[in-house]
Amino acid sequence: MKLLWRYVSQHKKFLFGALGLATVNQFFSLLDPQMMRLLIDRYATKAGEIEFSDFITGVVFLLFLYVSFAFISRTAKAFQDYFANVITQRVGAQLYADSVDHSFSLPFGVFEDERSGELLQKLEKARTDNQLFIASAINVVFLTSIGALFVIAYAFWVHWSIGLSYLLLFPVLATTIYFLSRKIKEKQKQIVAEQADMAGSTTETLRNVELVKSLGLETQEVSRLNAVNEKILKLELQKVRMVRTLSFIQGTAINFIRSLLTLLMFYLIFQQAMTLGEFFTLFVYSFFVFGPLWELGSVITQYQDAKAANEQLEAVFARPAEPKPKNPHTVGQLTSITLNGVAFSYQHANQPAVSGVNLEITGGQTVAFVGPSGSGKSTIIKLLVGLYKPTAGELRYNGIDCHQIDFEKFRKRIGLVAQETQLFAGTIRENLLFVNPRASDKDCLNVLHQAAADSILQRAKAGLDTKIGEGGLKLSGGERQRLAIARALLRNPELIIFDEATSSLDSITEKSITETIRQVEKSRPNLITILVAHRLSTINHAEKIYVLEKGKIIETGNHAQLVTKGGLYAALWRQQTASEDKPPISR
């Protein structure tokens, strides 16, 4: 729980305020039975031995103190709850914010290996469980500890045997509870792991709901998710049985201890070593001490929940952030990108994804990467935007090595249009401003026009405020791509990448989008444009085309040169043009 303490300790003012007020609250609450002891011993048992005026005066005075102490206790309780809530909310919010911040600082490879739903569930659970435990630690554990110390001290003052009984019996109860709670911890760790898996699976299913419903896989997916849910249910029920067993043993032990103490106190009354008022006070105090102990089972469960959640969160924090140079170099206006003998290998891969890559791209140039699936095109793109770092060779921007560049800042100068457009469930404006929050409506309309996306606004009743649905579901495939192009242009990039931007579109829409891309290239003469495609008709205008196969560049040139050369590019071109020219089959 070091992680939790690290955050709680940052709010010491509120923590000490809450604990101080909790002490005041408990102290004055414990004074109430003392007033009753005095009323019993001084007045109730001696009603015929004192004057009526002295009787009334004494009783009224003690009742006044009783009411005053209760008022002070309630006032302290109100402020204690406020301070405790401030701590729980601030710690929860800060813990979540730092977790999200660290998650985004992790290397891209981490997200390739872990489902986003699992990570989100870990962050949310850590926040909720820690908030519950902090509240219980202040309102139950600390208050009970203060009460126990006060009661034991008073018990020794009344008679040494009562105080000694408390000291001997408390450790026995605490030890029993500790050993029983260890099994709950192990069960909770299993539950947390399964819940993370459940969150990941559910997120994936909901994200692909169109595919699930289109193929009639609802029953299959519900059954798959229910199988995980049933596993979690079984673990939760096992945990419930453990908690109930703990509560039963705890409750039985508390009742037995109270009965022993009551028997001892009656014996002392019989021996005239204790007054009736002292007996009443200690009997009431037993509720102050043993009452919260009934909740100890819930507190232990919350502690184990928080501990298990924090262990998973600590594993996230333990992952090293994406390395950044201590003294990063500033890349001016991007005029060149150079790769010299660049290679990259995925973890656990038998061979490199790309190797021996040599190329140079200059400002204002349009280049393209083509090749079969798995040839290394996407890997090179991820290298160029800094998501991967070369395992061999050099990658330079304006002659500056990639390891000397702060990519978090550099990427703000890159525009990306991918095959999956990755739009958000908001308005057109919100999707555009995602990459440039300071852009005006005029800027948004301008890039929509450049991307030939005017048709989207023409049929949108609310204009830029039109909601497009999750992932742009309310738009056609071509409209989604045009909106993605407009979004990429809004940041006024120096490097724009079209990664299979038209591969999922029909031929007519593809030609329209390709023409839009060419217009963008012409309108921005200093822009470096990188195209990745399977369909060669979308990139045949590029000034330089790199043909990849098995992670290596095997051909370089423009369209005419490569067709004349008669290599892989020429074969792909003949194959695609032949299929396009082939007449339809009559039926």
Automatic annotation (TrEMBL):
<keyword id="KW-1003">Cell membrane</keyword>
<dbReference type="GO" id="GO:0140359">
    <property type="term" value="F:ABC-type transporter activity"/>
</dbReference>
<dbReference type="Pfam" id="PF00664">
    <property type="entry name" value="ABC_membrane"/>
</dbReference>
<dbReference type="InterPro" id="IPR039421">
    <property type="entry name" value="Type_1_exporter"/>
</dbReference>
<keyword id="KW-1133">Transmembrane helix</keyword>
<feature type="transmembrane region" description="Helical">
    <location>
        <begin position="163"/>
        <end position="180"/>
    </location>
</feature>
<dbReference type="GO" id="GO:0005886">
    <property type="term" value="C:plasma membrane"/>
</dbReference>
<dbReference type="GO" id="GO:0016887">
    <property type="term" value="F:ATP hydrolysis activity"/>
</dbReference>
<dbReference type="GO" id="GO:0005524">
    <property type="term" value="F:ATP binding"/>
</dbReference>
<dbReference type="GO" id="GO:0034040">
    <property type="term" value="F:ATPase-coupled lipid transmembrane transporter activity"/>
</dbReference>
<feature type="transmembrane region" description="Helical">
    <location>
        <begin position="55"/>
        <end position="72"/>
    </location>
</feature>
<protein>
    <submittedName>
        <fullName>ABC transporter ATP-binding protein</fullName>
    </submittedName>
</protein>
<dbReference type="InterPro" id="IPR017871">
    <property type="entry name" value="ABC_transporter-like_CS"/>
</dbReference>
<dbReference type="InterPro" id="IPR011527">
    <property type="entry name" value="ABC1_TM_dom"/>
</dbReference>
<dbReference type="InterPro" id="IPR003439">
    <property type="entry name" value="ABC_transporter-like_ATP-bd"/>
</dbReference>
<feature type="transmembrane region" description="Helical">
    <location>
        <begin position="276"/>
        <end position="294"/>
    </location>
</feature>
<keyword id="KW-0812">Transmembrane</keyword>
<keyword id="KW-0813">Transport</keyword>
<keyword id="KW-0472">Membrane</keyword>
<dbReference type="InterPro" id="IPR003593">
    <property type="entry name" value="AAA+_ATPase"/>
</dbReference>
<keyword id="KW-0067">ATP-binding</keyword>
<feature type="domain" description="ABC transporter">
    <location>
        <begin position="337"/>
        <end position="575"/>
    </location>
</feature>
<dbReference type="Pfam" id="PF00005">
    <property type="entry name" value="ABC_tran"/>
</dbReference>
<keyword id="KW-0547">Nucleotide-binding</keyword>
<feature type="domain" description="ABC transmembrane type-1">
    <location>
        <begin position="16"/>
        <end position="305"/>
    </location>
</feature>
<feature type="transmembrane region" description="Helical">
    <location>
        <begin position="132"/>
        <end position="157"/>
    </location>
</feature>
<feature type="transmembrane region" description="Helical">
    <location>
        <begin position="248"/>
        <end position="270"/>
    </location>
</feature>
<dbReference type="InterPro" id="IPR027417">
    <property type="entry name" value="P-loop_NTPase"/>
</dbReference>
<dbReference type="InterPro" id="IPR036640">
    <property type="entry name" value="ABC1_TM_sf"/>
</dbReference>
